[in-house]
């Protein structure tokens, strides 16, 4: 399998550790890049050019939704999904509207596997 | 103060919160990879002083830890997920056992609790919002530790009330009993009550 880069954005160190560990279990050869807020995610993405992005929503600064919207524009081929504890329907609809996925915390490994299998990152 | 909400609305609130807490328990269950059984939440409307006394009773006068988020909608206030301090490390252990070396657990305990709180409080608020047909904004979660009164941090003891739920987050092997508290001022509580009345009317009308 081709080596890919995944950008993991969450203001919680523990959340990044948990998600990061699950990614390493499923895709040991992938490069995992981390960012702790939306602004840093944009900087990290410009440098790392991720194929996949997992983005928390409630974060200090511009927040995950705005950051995801930016990344959607800048990286049209990347597979991007929100990863959030905020299960409210309007958040889900907003994700659909801006063309990113919606995964809920805590992340199930089979949902993560499905996301990592998605083809958008390879198109 | 406890008559702010009618009998039917109280039943409706209990049902709505039951579903919300069910959603939260499902989230917790996935985190700890174990079955989480929960008691039907007993919803009470208490004064801040009464709630603080309940918490201190539950910890035997010890410390509680909590994750707090402010929430804003047609009613606003603080929502808190509260655990006795001595139980909180058990919860963190069951959650992170496979991910983090044991010697780092204590250092990460606070971060981990905030993340557990974030997931549970959002599951609860989100389910509440979806059922009532509202959007509820919430702040970033913060960690607090102390006795009952400082945990609840009521700014206006005379004009605030607490919607208080005991939630038995009993993870199969270990009992982790938690509490959920919604601290609202009287205006918000009235607005919450009328939102629930409207919900009841909609449900009854089919």
From TrEMBL, chain A:
Pfam family, one: Response_reg
Keyword Phosphoprotein applies: yes
All copies of domain Response regulatory, residue ranges: 5-120
Phosphoprotein is among the record's keywords: yes
Top-rank lineage group of the source organism: Bacteria
SMART domains: REC
GO BP: phosphorelay signal transduction system
Protein name per its UniProtKB record: Response regulator receiver domain-containing protein
Automatic annotation (TrEMBL), chain B:
Source organism superkingdom: Bacteria
Descriptive protein name: Chemotaxis protein CheC
Keywords carried by this UniProt record: Chemotaxis, Hydrolase
A biological process from GO: chemotaxis
InterPro entries registered for this protein in UniProt: CheC, CheC-like_sf, CheZ_family_phosphatases
Transmembrane segment boundaries: none
Hydrolase found in the keyword field: yes
Matching SUPFAM superfamilies: CheC-like
Domain CheC-like protein: 9-43
Keyword check for Hydrolase: yes
Gene Ontology molecular function: hydrolase activity
């Amino acid at each position: 399998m081709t080596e890919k880069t995944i950008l993991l954005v969450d203001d919680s160190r523990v959340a990044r550790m948990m998600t990061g560990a699950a990614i390493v279990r499923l895709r040991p050869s992938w490069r995992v890049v981390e960012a702790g807020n939306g602004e840093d995610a944009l900087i990290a993405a410009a440098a790392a050019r991720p194929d996949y992005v997992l983005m928390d929503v409630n974060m200090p600064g511009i927040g995950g939704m705005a950051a995801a919207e930016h990344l959607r524009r800048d990286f049209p081929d990347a597979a991007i999904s929100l990863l959030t504890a905020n299960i409210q329907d309007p958040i889900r609809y907003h994700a659909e509207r801006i063309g990113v996925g919606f995964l809920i915390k805590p992340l199930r490994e089979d949902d993560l596997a499905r996301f990592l299998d998605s083809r958008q990152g390879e198109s | 103060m406890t008559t702010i909400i009618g009998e039917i609305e109280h039943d409706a609130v209990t049902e709505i919160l039951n579903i919300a807490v069910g959603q939260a328990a499902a989230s917790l269950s996935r985190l700890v990879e174990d079955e989480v059984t929960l008691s039907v939440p007993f919803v009470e409307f208490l004064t801040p002083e009464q709630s603080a006394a309940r918490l201190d009773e539950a910890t035997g006068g010890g410390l509680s830890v909590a994750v707090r988020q402010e929430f804003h909608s047609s009613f606003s206030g603080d929502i808190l997920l509260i655990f006795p301090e001595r139980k909180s490390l058990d919860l963190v252990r069951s959650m992170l056992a496979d991910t983090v070396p044991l010697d780092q657990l204590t250092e990460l305990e606070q971060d981990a609790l905030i993340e557990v709180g974030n997931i549970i409080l959002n599951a609860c608020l989100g389910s509440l919002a979806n059922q009532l047909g509202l959007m509820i904004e919430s702040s970033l979660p913060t960690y607090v530790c102390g006795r009952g009164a400082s945990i609840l941090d009521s700014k206006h003891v005379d004009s605030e009330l607490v919607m208080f739920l005991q939630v038995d987050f009993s993870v199969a092997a270990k009992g982790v009993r938690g509490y959920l508290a919604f601290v609202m001022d009287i205006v918000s509580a009235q607005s919450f009550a009328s939102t629930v009345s409207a919900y009841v009317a909609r449900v009854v009308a089919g």
